[in-house]
Amino acid sequence: MPEKTAGSGRTYTAHYADVHLIVRQGDEILMGRRRSQPVFPDMYQVPAGLMEDHEPSTMAAAREFTEETGATVDLGDVRFVHLMHHVSTHAGSRRIAFFFEVDRWHGQIGNPEPDKCQGWEWHKATNLPEPLPPYLGIALQHIADGVTYSEYAWPRGAQAGASATASTGTTHG
């Protein structure tokens, strides 16, 4: 895991920050099936990716949407819906995942990265396709339930106590 050193000389663990854009059309969500990628191969995902250096999270979500679909969104339409602090069950890396949603976009949704994605389809939010990355399924359920923060897949020993986290709507994997 990458580390950063503060001005005090103390070393801190750095986290990957990723963004997810849940694109809604009525009661449906836009999802693409990943090709045989190194991370979560052949699983369904929403437009998502890692934040780049010096990039705010809403801008990163909008950029990823454009890179993956060819369409664009206005930053003013991007709404925060969830934050998940999790350990990737695929790579083992610590991550902070920002989830945003939109219900307006500009242009045609296409597939400019056919080497990474089999294509984009609309799926009922109440009947999502399988398989999903485990953290995504949990996050989408939290979003449906109105929970804005969760933790997922942290080793039990990393938690201060289950009773303290249960009241915040966290999930442990």
Task: Give a written overview of the molecule.
There is one protein chain. By secondary structure, the protein is α+β, with helices and mostly antiparallel strands. Helices cover 17% and strands 34% of the residues. It is built from 3 helices and 10 strands, in the order E-E-E-E-E-E-H-E-E-E-H-E-H. Strands 3, 4, 5, 6, 7, 8, 9 and 10 form an 8-stranded mixed beta sheet that branches. A two-stranded antiparallel ribbon has the order 1-2. Residues 160-173 have low confidence and may be disordered.
Concise summary:
With 173 residues, the chain is an alpha+beta fold.
Question: Any key phrases for this structure?
Answer:
173 residues, alpha+beta, 8-stranded mixed β-sheet, 17% helix, globular, disordered C terminus
Classify the beta-strand content into a percent band. Answer: 25-35%
What's the rounded overall pLDDT mean?
Answer: 88
Would you count the extended β strands for me? 10
Through-space gap between termini: 20 Å
Percent helix: 10-25%
How would a textbook summarize the main sheet?
8 strands, mixed
**Unreliable stretches covering 5 or more consecutive residues:** 160-173
Q: How many helical elements?
A: 3
Specify the structural class.
alpha+beta
Order of helices and strands: EEEEEEHEEEHEH
The shape, in one word, is globular
- Roughly how many Å is the radius of gyration? 17 Å
